Amino acid sequence: MPKFFAMIERQIENQIRKKIGKGKAIIIMGARQIGKTTLLKRIFSENALWFNGDEIEVRNLFSNISAARLKALIGKQSTIVLDEAQRIEDIGLKLKLITDNLPDIQLVATGSSSFELANKINEPLTGRKWQYQMFPLSFAEMVNHHGLLQEKMMLNHRLVYGYYPDIVNNQGEEKELLQQLSDSVLYKDILKFDNIQKTDKLIKLLQALAYQVGSQVSYNELAQLCGIDGKTVEKYIMILEQAYIIFRLQPYSRNLRSELKNTRKIFFYDNGLRNALIADFRQVEMRTDIGALWENFIISERIKHLNYNGLWVNSWFWRTVEQKEIDYLEEADGQLSAYEFKWNADAKVKFPKQFTETYQNSTLTVIHRDNLEVFLL
Length: 377
Fold this sequence. Notes:
- This protein is α/β, with parallel strands linked by helices.
- It is built from 19 helices and twelve strands.
- The protein has helices at 3-7, 12-19, 36-43, 56-61, 67-74, 91-101, 114-121, 139-146, 148-153, 155-161, 165-169, 174-190, 199-211, 219-226, 230-242, 271-277, 290-308, 353-358, 373-376, and strands at residues 25-29, 48-52, 79-83, 106-111, 129-133, 216-217, 246-251, 264-268, 314-319, 325-332, 335-341, 363-367.
- Strand 10 (325-332) and strand 11 form a beta hairpin.
- The mean pLDDT is 91.
């Protein structure tokens, strides 16, 4: 990874450092090419034994590993790092073997598929792990790197090209690198899942989701558009979510009969990847989808902020059958907060009367490009 990226302090780094030597495995989940390996090499620069689960030799080595052989392999190292650990068969049992038999060794594992890794480790490592999510670079991390003013000046660029480390680090080559990234995500990560044989259908689905960012999505409509059944659409969306490509927001429904209950919105963790999927790298000034770009950016950045700062909230959007809508809601400690996202700082916003009268104690905030730091820092 280029030196520039290595200089950027990741928000998750201090959390990981505090857990070293506490007697539990450290598990880091997140998409490929977001810098998991770079981060770990900075933290564990010395006395670490590295294994990459993508390598067949490593998978063969762990196919019949024993505690005695592990001890011989480790030697004087104090840390074992298993990169892309989900590729190793029965990885949960292998991690348990290490934590149980080598208590003085710090075990670290990364995975780019929450389904593959989490399902394999949750039961064997119950009470034996610290687990974290890691994302592409964040607005807050870039602010810490070169200041708020500089990052706000880059905002138009981030809306189009996103925050993947390689993209941030190589200005002028964003389009080519994002195309390579989207191909890698599709063909190396997603399509290797069992029973995904309709490559063209999955690509159509991804593109449809990219065009519908910020809008309610119907699995039945997506099924008709992509030529597959609704259950397959739901399965593919779950896989895309588990591969850290997209995430879902559910509707908020408590007091009004007219509140929508059976719908959802889908967002991408990175604007650049979203734009690459539809081959649209037009600059902000020329786009008709700036509202969707802004909403995707601000919500995905908020997810990073909440996760890295250990803030436990429930997140939704709100809409009624009369199509009254609020972009985003959060509830924490009994307090409901409502947010509207507007790219134009001068846009007029009026929160729906149905909402303000029903949820009178909620806070109402408009987030725009001039005040986004109050929401993301």
